[in-house]
Write a structure and sequence with these properties.
Largest sheet: 9 strands, antiparallel
Number of helices: 4
Shape: elongated
Distance between the termini: 40 Å
Order of helices and strands: HHEHEEEEHEEEE
CATH class: Alpha Beta
Helix content: 25-40%
Number of strands: 9
Radius of gyration: 17 Å
């Protein structure tokens, strides 16, 4: 599971930029498919399309933990991944993916915020330090290793460059910078 979390954290900036460039070509600036690229092939269980028996394939502890922590979410999309399970849902315009290990223990969260729904502290940092850049959206990562302190990944773009930003505990790091030609 630790390897899975490290892989996700390492791949998100690269995938965000790749998705951003592809999304621009399609006119869609949302981050799409990051988790599928990070985790490879999934065995999908979609409760909106399958009978209630599908949930039987998910660890009951994961389902119980999800139900306890997300009481307002009625029908998440569950997926079986290599090292556990995910539950996906959208709430207030924010896409959420909750990760559980094979034993049903919480392993992490990934939230995708559109630019107009960013948390206030993240918006303030980006406005102050990257006000002239276009921010298409931000992903928030929380894992067992982060002790509840989220890391935000953003792609900032201006006429000259694309920057991958990592925001953690109020500090911004320019993870990668690409010049445009």
């Amino acid at each position: 599971m630790k390897k899975l979390i490290i892989m996700l954290a390492a791949l998100i900036p690269a995938l965000a930029a790749t998705n951003k460039l592809n999304a621009q070509q399609n006119g869609n600036l949302a981050f799409q498919g990051m988790e599928r690229a990070a985790f490879g092939n999934f065995a999908t269980i979609d409760n909106s399309k399958n009978s209630g028996e599908s949930i039987a394939n998910i660890n009951s502890k994961a389902v119980k933990n999800f139900s306890k922590n997300y009481k307002k979410v009625s029908s998440p999309r569950w997926e079986i991944i290599m090292d556990g399970y995910t539950a996906e849902f959208t709430e207030n315009g924010v896409r959420n993916i909750v990760y559980y290990d094979t034993k049903g223990n919480w392993a992490g969260n990934l939230k995708r915020y559109p630019a107009d729904k960013l948390p206030g502290e993240v918006q303030d940092i980006l406005d102050t330090q990257y006000g002239r850049y276009t921010i298409d959206g931000v992903s928030q990562i929380e894992t067992t290793a982060s002790n509840g302190v989220p890391t935000y990944i953003a792609v900032a773009e201006d006429k000259k460059s694309i920057k991958w930003l990592r925001i953690f505990d109020g500090e911004v790091e320019e993870y990668k910078v690409f010049s445009k030609k």
